[in-house]
């Protein structure tokens, strides 16, 4: 029983780490590159404007998609590793 | 064939399809009525979620908002997609594991309190009812523009269609109708955009066209647009925003509001497994992105097209003569959504930004004020006409706009009716009601919700424009934090969650009322709604994120001063965290 609990606890910690990492990327793409860091990135030109504008109108959405699928793939794998899948 | 007949064929056949699906997908039990039996494929659920989510506002208004605000209004693009990342990681899989029917179900059980459940029901109903009014009015407008009936008749037709498949099929009928509606709306949105992108940039995919070369001038499209708007006294399309704090908080409010809206969350109760809930969020985002990546392209291209129509020889030359304006301008003038007034009496259409900074230049050119007023909501609807596309494309846009409004309305009505029949009646008033009885009550609540929504759509309370702020503010400041704490903390207890929800809800409402009028009654605002008056430059629309922080702080503080939740509640939290295992609340 304690083994079981230990296992479950490890799974949850792994999930929390994964969420934290993903949310850092999520915030960097949207609040970072698209808003706060835009003046810093203004030297990088993309199709008639700068990288920050691209992140605001396109890049952040693409990052969100990749993140969501990455999380689903990684978590579903974790479920199996820990024998917790349905 | 005239335009009216074509519109009628397109709208009529899309409705016939929805009716067909409704008859095929009748609900026979409460489980089918509330969560479509829990057997929806994750990709289909992603599609249905996208249609559920993309409302009349996304379909009709968003491109216009971005066209008007340029970079500054990118907040809508990021806010209305970024919320799905939060939903996928922080809410959807665990609430699916919990395995019940409604959002208040979880809040009531996790915080072992009828009061918590009732507070959640109240938040849900306020957020969803305000939201559904906008959908019904949107559907009414689309009907009256394309099918030449008056607004109220249009609304009643919309209500009857929704009634048919929502009451008969519940979530099951709604889900499969939404899948069809998604297909209709995404085709309708994409086709005109592809044509326009080809015309302006020779690029097939609008999202790539946005960052490509403008064929006619040989310079990048966005650079061209910046140059044109600058000549006419407007701010650069790509100009940066000074108030970054407000931009960040507004985006965050939209994101947590998205994640906390009950009609979106319940879509994830319909998939078979926890793993499917995770995939489904990704698919929803892909299907949403198909429209959201096209919208900014439509925005900038339509803005450039509009300015080129008015200034065919370039912004530094003379604008067109009013007598020579294109047909589509005349069509929209009759609706009052485009207005022209020849202020300097020269018979030409001066269209520019009438601000003090541009006064000197305007006077030098003999201009006496901006003469053209274009409602930004017509951009998407008028797109096919601006780009000279065949009349069947206009019929398609009509069917697409209606699909967007009806699919969202149906999702909201289901969230409202399940909160009433399941949370209020079965959860509080008559717990012993049979499954058949509850199904009947669910259908009656749905009927009542449709009647109320139709009535409010015909007589919109004065605050219709503020609805978005209200719905997102409430969902983000009250429901999202409560759900998240219920999953990620074992320590937050009933009294903590209730005080937290109320603190988040009330602080957000008060801040909105201070600037937009108490209970939105015109003239009762305590302060003028200008950036100088805002606390730290935070606009009332951005306050949801602050309300959420208040909710978290209050809930944790109160919980730490009171007794921890009972052992069985801590076990419930454990059970939602693991897809399989520790047993618990699953009912199947």
Automatic annotation (TrEMBL), chain A:
<feature type="transmembrane region" description="Helical">
    <location>
        <begin position="18"/>
        <end position="41"/>
    </location>
</feature>
<feature type="domain" description="Sodium symporter small subunit">
    <location>
        <begin position="9"/>
        <end position="84"/>
    </location>
</feature>
<dbReference type="Pfam" id="PF13937">
    <property type="entry name" value="DUF4212"/>
</dbReference>
<keyword id="KW-0472">Membrane</keyword>
<keyword id="KW-1133">Transmembrane helix</keyword>
<dbReference type="InterPro" id="IPR019886">
    <property type="entry name" value="Na_symporter_ssu"/>
</dbReference>
<keyword id="KW-0812">Transmembrane</keyword>
<feature type="transmembrane region" description="Helical">
    <location>
        <begin position="53"/>
        <end position="73"/>
    </location>
</feature>
<protein>
    <submittedName>
        <fullName>DUF4212 domain-containing protein</fullName>
    </submittedName>
</protein>
UniProtKB/TrEMBL annotation, chain B:
<keyword id="KW-0813">Transport</keyword>
<keyword id="KW-0406">Ion transport</keyword>
<keyword id="KW-0915">Sodium</keyword>
<dbReference type="Pfam" id="PF00474">
    <property type="entry name" value="SSF"/>
</dbReference>
<feature type="transmembrane region" description="Helical">
    <location>
        <begin position="77"/>
        <end position="95"/>
    </location>
</feature>
<feature type="transmembrane region" description="Helical">
    <location>
        <begin position="153"/>
        <end position="170"/>
    </location>
</feature>
<feature type="transmembrane region" description="Helical">
    <location>
        <begin position="116"/>
        <end position="133"/>
    </location>
</feature>
<protein>
    <submittedName>
        <fullName>Cation acetate symporter</fullName>
    </submittedName>
</protein>
<keyword id="KW-0769">Symport</keyword>
<dbReference type="InterPro" id="IPR019899">
    <property type="entry name" value="Na/solute_symporter_VC_2705"/>
</dbReference>
<feature type="transmembrane region" description="Helical">
    <location>
        <begin position="247"/>
        <end position="269"/>
    </location>
</feature>
<dbReference type="InterPro" id="IPR050277">
    <property type="entry name" value="Sodium:Solute_Symporter"/>
</dbReference>
<feature type="transmembrane region" description="Helical">
    <location>
        <begin position="281"/>
        <end position="302"/>
    </location>
</feature>
<keyword id="KW-0812">Transmembrane</keyword>
<dbReference type="InterPro" id="IPR001734">
    <property type="entry name" value="Na/solute_symporter"/>
</dbReference>
<keyword id="KW-1003">Cell membrane</keyword>
<dbReference type="GO" id="GO:0015293">
    <property type="term" value="F:symporter activity"/>
</dbReference>
<feature type="transmembrane region" description="Helical">
    <location>
        <begin position="541"/>
        <end position="561"/>
    </location>
</feature>
<feature type="transmembrane region" description="Helical">
    <location>
        <begin position="53"/>
        <end position="71"/>
    </location>
</feature>
<keyword id="KW-0739">Sodium transport</keyword>
<feature type="transmembrane region" description="Helical">
    <location>
        <begin position="500"/>
        <end position="521"/>
    </location>
</feature>
<comment type="similarity">
    <text>Belongs to the sodium:solute symporter (SSF) (TC 2.A.21) family.</text>
</comment>
């Amino acid at each position: 029983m304690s083994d079981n609990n230990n296992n479950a606890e490890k799974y949850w910690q792994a999930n929390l780490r994964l969420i934290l990492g993903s949310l850092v990327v999520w915030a960097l793409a949207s609040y970072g590159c698209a808003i706060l860091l835009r003046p810093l990135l203004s030297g990088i030109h993309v199709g008639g404007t700068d990288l920050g504008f691209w992140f605001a109108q396109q890049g952040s959405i693409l990052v969100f998609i990749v993140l969501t699928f990455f999380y689903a793939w990684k978590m579903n794998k974790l479920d199996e590793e820990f024998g917790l899948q349905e | 064939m005239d335009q009216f007949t074509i519109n009628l064929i397109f709208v009529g056949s899309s409705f016939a399809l929805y009716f067909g699906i409704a008859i095929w997908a009748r609900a026979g039990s409460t489980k089918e009525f509330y969560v479509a039996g829990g057997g929806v494929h994750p990709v289909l659920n992603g599609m249905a979620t996208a249609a559920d989510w993309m409302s009349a506002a996304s379909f009709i208004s968003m491109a216009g908002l971005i066209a008007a605000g340029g970079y500054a209004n990118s907040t809508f693009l990021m806010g209305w997609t970024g919320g799905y990342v939060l939903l996928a990681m922080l809410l959807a899989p665990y609430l699916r594991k919990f395995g019940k029917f409604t959002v208040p179900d979880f809040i009531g059980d996790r915080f072992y309190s009828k009061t918590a459940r009732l507070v959640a029901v109240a938040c849900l109903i306020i957020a969803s009812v305000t939201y559904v009014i906008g959908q019904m009015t949107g559907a009414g407008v689309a009907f009256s523009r394309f099918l030449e009936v008056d607004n109220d008749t249009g609304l009643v037709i919309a209500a009857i269609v929704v009634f048919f498949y929502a009451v008969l099929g519940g979530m099951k009928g709604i889900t499969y109708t939404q899948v069809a509606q998604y297909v209709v709306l995404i085709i309708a949105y994409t086709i005109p955009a592809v044509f326009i992108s080809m015309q302006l940039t020779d690029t097939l995919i609008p999202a790539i066209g946005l960052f490509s070369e403008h064929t006619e001038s040989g310079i990048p499209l966005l650079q061209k647009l910046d140059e044109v708007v600058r000549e006419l006294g407007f701010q650069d399309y790509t100009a940066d925003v000074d108030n970054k704090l407000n931009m960040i908080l507004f985006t965050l409010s939209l994101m947590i509001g998205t994640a906390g809206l009950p009609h979106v969350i319940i879509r994830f109760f319909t998939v078979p497994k926890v793993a499917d809930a995770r995939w489904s969020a990704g698919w929803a985002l892909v299907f949403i992105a198909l429209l959201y990546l096209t919208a900014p392209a439509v925005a900038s291209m339509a803005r450039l097209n509009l300015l080129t129509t008015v200034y065919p020889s370039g912004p530094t030359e003379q604008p067109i003569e009013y007598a020579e304006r294109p047909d589509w301008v005349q069509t929209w003038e009759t609706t009052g959504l485009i207005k022209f007034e020849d202020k300097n009496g020269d018979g030409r259409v001066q269209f520019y930004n009438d601000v003090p900074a541009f006064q000197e230049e305007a006077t030098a050119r003999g201009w006496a004020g901006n003469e053209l007023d274009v409602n930004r909501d017509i951009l998407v609807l008028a797109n096919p006409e601006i780009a000279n596309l065949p009349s069947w494309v206009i019929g398609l846009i009509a069917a697409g706009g209606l699909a967007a409004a009806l699919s969202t309305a149906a999702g909201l009505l289901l969230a409202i009716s399940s909160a009433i029949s399941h949370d209020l009646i079965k959860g509080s008033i008559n717990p012993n009601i049979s499954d058949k009885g509850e199904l009947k009550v669910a259908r009656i609540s749905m009927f009542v919700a449709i009647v109320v929504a139709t009535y409010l759509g015909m007589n919109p309370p004065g605050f219709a424009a503020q609805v978005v702020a209200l719905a997102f503010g409430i969902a983000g400041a009250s429901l999202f934090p409560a759900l998240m704490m219920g999953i990620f903390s074992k320590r937050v207890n009933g009294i903590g969650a209730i005080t937290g929800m109320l603190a988040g809800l009330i602080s957000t409402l008060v801040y909105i009322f201070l600037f937009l009028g108490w209970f939105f009654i015109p003239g009762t605002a305590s302060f003028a709604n200008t950036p100088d008056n805002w606390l730290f430059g935070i606009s009332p629309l951005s306050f949801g994120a602050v309300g959420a922080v208040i909710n978290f702080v209050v809930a944790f503080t109160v919980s730490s001063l009171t007794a921890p939740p009972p052992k069985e509640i801590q076990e419930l939290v454990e059970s939602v965290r693991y897809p399989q295992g520790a047993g618990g609340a699953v009912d199947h």
